[in-house]
Design a protein that fits this description.
Blueprint (H helix, E strand, L loop, with lengths): L2 H10 L2 H9 L2 E5 L4 E3 L7 E7 L2 E5 L7 E6 L4 E2 L13 E4 L3 E7 H10 L1 H30 L9
Antiparallel strand pairs: 1-8, 2-7, 3-6, 3-8, 4-5, 4-7
InterPro entries: cNMP-bd_dom, cNMP-bd_dom_sf, Env_Response_Regulators, RmlC-like_jellyroll
GO molecular function, one term: DNA-binding transcription factor activity
Protein name: Cyclic nucleotide-binding domain-containing protein
């Protein structure tokens, strides 16, 4: 396994949980333009990007999908697999050649169910990722629509 990805997971999770999670990973690659998942479809896996970048997008009726965020090296792609009803809230597309670790969501959820400490650690890791992305989206929206950008409030 790539030690930089493994070490990033080990920093986010207690060592034994990160190592256990990585044992369930498989290496995959995607060429540019590959759709990893579509909004509204079943969320049955997730990825940690080793190299390349993935655009997270949202359908806009009558228009092309709007890119919400682009994620890359050592970042988590997909969190909808953890929370019911396990359907994707966004879509995702490789914007460059991508190499990643792929995880089967059902396997990871079963591991988390069997080991509450692992479940808590994974939930915290995914929750932190979601919270960081929501803060980032909020800042982008303020920059786009607020009269004074995302600066301090008066």
């Amino acid at each position: 396994m790539n030690t930089s990805v493994t070490s990033s997971i080990l920093r986010a999770l207690p060592a034994e949980h990160g190592e256990r999670l990585m044992r369930s990973a498989r290496e995959v690659s995607f060429p540019v333009g590959t759709r990893l998942f579509e909004e509204g479809r079943r969320a049955d896996r997730f990825w940690i990007v080793r190299t390349g970048s993935v655009a997270l997008d949202m359908r806009v009726p009558g228009r092309r999908a709007a890119v919400i965020e682009t994620v890359g090296h050592n970042e988590l792609v997909g969190w909808s697999w953890l929370f019911g009803p396990h359907t994707w809230h966004l879509g995702a597309e490789a914007t460059s050649p991508v190499r990643a670790y792929e995880f089967d969501a059902e396997v990871v959820r079963a591991m988390c169910g069997a080991d509450p400490a692992l479940g808590m650690a994974v939930s915290q890791w995914v929750g932190d990722t979601v919270a960081r992305r929501l803060r980032s989206a909020r800042t982008r929206l303020l920059d786009m629509y607020a009269p004074y950008g995302s600066g301090s409030l008066r």
